[in-house]
Amino acid sequence: MRRMVSVVCAILVVGCASTVAAGEESSGIDVSGTAEIGALRALVHNIQIGEDGYQFDYVQEGGQELLLPYYRFEADAVIGDRHEIALLYQPLTLQTQTRVDNDGGILIDDVNFADDTPLDLQYGFDFYRGTYRYRVLDDETRFSIGGGLQIRNASIVFDGYREDEEGRLVDARTISQDLGPVPVISTAFRRDLAGGQFVEATLDGFYAPVRYLNLRDVDVIGWLYDASIRVGTPLYEDTEAYLSLRFLGGGSDGTAAERTRWTQSRDEPRYTRNNLNLAVLSIGARL
Description:
disordered N terminus, Lipocalin, single chain, 2 helices, 10-stranded antiparallel beta barrel, two-stranded antiparallel sheet, mainly beta, 64% strand
């Protein structure tokens, strides 16, 4: 895994170095920053932890049928009119509350949360992404393609109650956390319209059907996608505003490695299947 991470990082470093060289030969560096605020809605979101675990539906059972707040922050640089570098921070922690409503409770990992008891949920999937793209077209229509590295910062928590041997309710909690790299293929499109208006689209994603492709040494299938379309207009000078529709998701299927930290709920390797699909409507500004 370290070798694969080193290769991806080397590609990014080489790309950045080439952009600096290109910038010295042409029109310099154009730096901008974007920020978005809006609301997200979970379309499909479920998880199963443990081979015999309950397949929990966050939308139908976990309170994610509501609109939840959304934020996104990105810094961009265009060097020599052809080389694009983007640094993204995407906070994505969904916290909801519900009650268990299933005869016999629900088994999450090795904890059976009792029926008709409160359940607090946290689904944290904040991530960071560095991307390099080369601008193939650079006119009224722009198109660029490249790749990057995303760092996932996942923390999934179920916090509620179980029954002990004597039938009394006691506190119970399962925690699943993961920090790791994910390679990304990236494309971007922009069309300038009359009056300064514009349409943009981006697509970032990856699918890893076998180990090592997802920069891990365990047999876990992983995937992610981040697709958006924006319609915008200039405000003043170099400032733009836009409306964005985004579809964002990912997941995994397989058995991870053994526990190495207390924040994992048990020692032995465990099977996990996770599928997240979100729709986001937001407004943004580019400075």
